[in-house]
């Protein structure tokens, strides 16, 4: 019983750490992307998808890798920090990916819209695309394996989800009953009391 309590506190600590790291990362991203730049001129806003990426590729492989890599890495930690802050272990991998990617896209879009009022910054739709892809890649690379490992650790040794041995199950459940479904005993009954006239 104590193990389940410690698992609950571990999830709470993990969630708290995720929230703190998420907040710290968002503050860093805001500082990097929303500071005014002192430049002589700025390029026009890019509202055509992939036009900025094509322009980066025209600069040569090293410069293109640097610029595209910066776009992918800027919000990539959100792919791990958002599920970590959520603190859920039993969730559909596709639903988790969808929610995380949509949240990352909204954060990126918010940054781009906020940059419209910052001197020296312009809107770039390719930045939203690269940021969103970075969030998705980080999520796919880390979160499914991380959640699986935490679920296995939470179950502990000897509590696998294989079939129970014969004779150890409850009525009507058969061999497919999971070890987590151990009977808790009979349901308590309250005696009926007659109503006074």
UniProtKB/TrEMBL annotation:
<feature type="compositionally biased region" description="Gly residues">
    <location>
        <begin position="157"/>
        <end position="175"/>
    </location>
</feature>
<protein>
    <submittedName>
        <fullName>VanZ family protein</fullName>
    </submittedName>
</protein>
<feature type="transmembrane region" description="Helical">
    <location>
        <begin position="127"/>
        <end position="146"/>
    </location>
</feature>
<feature type="transmembrane region" description="Helical">
    <location>
        <begin position="71"/>
        <end position="90"/>
    </location>
</feature>
<keyword id="KW-0812">Transmembrane</keyword>
<dbReference type="InterPro" id="IPR006976">
    <property type="entry name" value="VanZ-like"/>
</dbReference>
<feature type="region of interest" description="Disordered">
    <location>
        <begin position="151"/>
        <end position="197"/>
    </location>
</feature>
<feature type="domain" description="VanZ-like">
    <location>
        <begin position="23"/>
        <end position="142"/>
    </location>
</feature>
<dbReference type="Pfam" id="PF04892">
    <property type="entry name" value="VanZ"/>
</dbReference>
<feature type="transmembrane region" description="Helical">
    <location>
        <begin position="97"/>
        <end position="115"/>
    </location>
</feature>
<keyword id="KW-1133">Transmembrane helix</keyword>
<feature type="transmembrane region" description="Helical">
    <location>
        <begin position="12"/>
        <end position="34"/>
    </location>
</feature>
<keyword id="KW-0472">Membrane</keyword>
<dbReference type="InterPro" id="IPR053150">
    <property type="entry name" value="Teicoplanin_resist-assoc"/>
</dbReference>
């Amino acid at each position: 019983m104590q193990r389940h309590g410690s698992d609950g506190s571990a999830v709470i600590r993990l969630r708290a750490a995720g929230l703190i790291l998420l907040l710290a990362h968002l503050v860093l991203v805001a500082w990097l992307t929303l500071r005014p730049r002192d430049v002589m001129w700025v390029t026009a806003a890019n509202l055509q998808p992939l036009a900025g990426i094509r322009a980066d590729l025209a600069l040569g492989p090293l410069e293109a890798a640097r610029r595209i890599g910066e776009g992918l890495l800027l919000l990539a930690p959100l792919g791990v920090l958002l599920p970590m802050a959520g603190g859920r272990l039993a969730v559909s991998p596709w639903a988790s990916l969808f929610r995380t990617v949509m949240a990352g896209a909204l954060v990126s879009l918010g940054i781009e819209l906020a940059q419209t009022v910052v001197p020296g910054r312009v809107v770039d739709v390719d930045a939203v695309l690269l940021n969103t892809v970075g969030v998705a890649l980080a999520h796919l690379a880390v979160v499914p394996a991380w959640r699986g490992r935490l679920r296995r650790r939470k179950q502990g040794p000897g509590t696998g989800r294989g079939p129970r041995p014969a004779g150890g199950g409850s009525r009507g459940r058969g061999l497919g009953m999971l070890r987590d479904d151990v009977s808790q005993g009979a349901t308590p009954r309250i005696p009926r009391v007659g109503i006074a006239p």
